[in-house]
Amino acid sequence: MDIKNGFVGSVGNTPLIRLNRFSEETGCEILGKAEFLNPGGSVKDRAALYIIEDAERKGLLKPGGTVVEGTAGNTGIGLAHICNAKGYKCLIFIPDTQSQEKIDMLRTLGAEVRPIPAVPYKDPNNYARISGTVAAQMENAIWANQFDNLANRIGHYETTGAEIWAQTDGKVDAWVTATGTGGTLAGVSLFLKEKNPAIKTVLADPMGSGLYSYVKTGEITIEGSSITEGIGNSRVTANMEGVPLDDAIQIHDTEAVRVVYRLLKEEGLFVGGSTGINVAAAVALAKQMGSGHTIVTILCDSGSRYQSRLFNQEWLASKGLSPD
């Protein structure tokens, strides 16, 4: 019998989906890792699990303890699920710019949620910094610290990267994804480059993030803004340090939104804005590389977490965006 051991045993081993229309248009195999099929609904279930189990192994988190984190939503949702499964409490600090759906879901899962005004990381009132300060003042509590906790990228090295290699029989030419903490991009890049240094690893970046310029010039420069949530950064995290990257592609919201709606209407996939960035970047990379290549990216989470924004025509219009 093939039976998973509870929520924890269900994380990972997601399918790799061929994106038919985009593959046919580019002449490349464009494949999406269906991370929205994780039990908590996003790619962040992997990092959440590895961070908690790493703390358990180190004796930092004991029965009845509390997991504290600053998160744009999906890592918090993964942490809350796993805390419930393992008997821990969960305290989440979240930027008040994030979708109401994510905040409501965190509270439904039983997490204590404290919305924080969105400010840059260098500001001591940044949501991630505040979560670390609060965790340090609590007994039997850990700060998940997803941005700089290397358990994050180790999880993706050991699972996501290994799965992609196995699912493609090692026949992958390029790997591209957006990044917030750096864990997914880093872990998979490190694994694939070890297997085959010729595999091209590429960072996809929204406007309003400094990582595109960092890869291109070595310096962080920020231009514009984006409606996407949970991706982009104004600094290089510990998870990103030393990661082999060959290039970066910058994607505007207009293209990301167009791709999200094409995925819905043409592929039947209901996904969020970060997936729009990822698939748009995979298409751009396919055009750069030419036909005959296999390119893998991440389908991060479900569009249901962005119903009131990304799939609200009035809200999109207020941002000067349209599915067309």
TrEMBL record:
Gene Ontology biological process terms in this record: cysteine biosynthetic process from serine
A Pfam family hit: PALP
Catalytic reaction(s) noted: O-acetyl-L-serine + hydrogen sulfide = L-cysteine + acetate
GO MF annotation terms: cysteine synthase activity
Cofactor: pyridoxal 5'-phosphate
Domain (Tryptophan synthase beta chain-like PALP): residue spans on this chain: 11-301
Keyword Transferase in annotation: yes
UniProt EC number: 2.5.1.47
Keyword terms of this UniProt record: Amino-acid biosynthesis, Pyridoxal phosphate, Transferase, Transit peptide
Pathway noted in the entry: Amino-acid biosynthesis
InterPro entries for this protein: Cys_Synth/Cystath_Beta-Synth (IPR050214), P-phosphate_BS (IPR001216), TrpB-like_PALP (IPR001926), TrpB-like_PALP_sf (IPR036052)
Transferase in keyword set: yes
Family membership noted in the UniProt record: Belongs to the cysteine synthase/cystathionine beta-synthase family.
The protein, known as: cysteine synthase
Source species of the chain: Crinalium epipsammum PCC 9333
